[in-house]
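[Help] Beginner question about ligand-bound structures

Sorry if this is basic. My supervisor gave me a protein sequence and a SMILES string for zinc ion and asked me to "get the holo structure". I don't really know what that means in practice or what format the answer should be in. Inputs are pasted below exactly as I got them.
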Amino acid sequence: MKTSFKFKNMHACEAVVLACIDFRFWKETVEFVEKELVIKSFDFPSLPGAAKAINESQDETFVFGCIDVPVNLHHAKKIVIVNHQDCGAYGGSAKWSGDGEAEQKFHTEELQKAKEKLSAKYPDKEIILVYAKLENDQNDINFVRIV
Ligand SMILES: [Zn+2]
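Answer (accepted):
No worries, everyone starts somewhere. Holo just means with the ligand present. The predicted complex, written as structure tokens, is below.
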């Protein structure tokens, strides 16, 4: 396959987006970042649980490498972290026995915790937190900005 290389001669990107590896969410996450956040160039590392990787990793060199390269080499100004509902890395929705509100509250706290860690390391970056929530009997994904 041959295709055009859109980023010829470009070595900087606007953001780094850290999302979960989950196949059910990443394509829509890319769409959300492009359309809603209007970010057209971004590095896109994915690790199980997204914020979980930052909060719980035993190997910080590896995890922060996913952020360091975009920030230092590609001069990304924004860091976006996307957690999602029914995340297997956290035990799935089953862990909250279907209480979506409690699950969202938990992910909100996880994201905020990750933000604190990242702000300490990258004080001049804008950090955007997002929770991908399942709605309408799981027919829709709603990307909710956490403030
Ligand atoms: Zn996940």
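A couple of things worth pointing out: The longest strand covers residues 126-135. Residues 100-121 form the longest helix (22 residues). Feel free to follow up in the thread.
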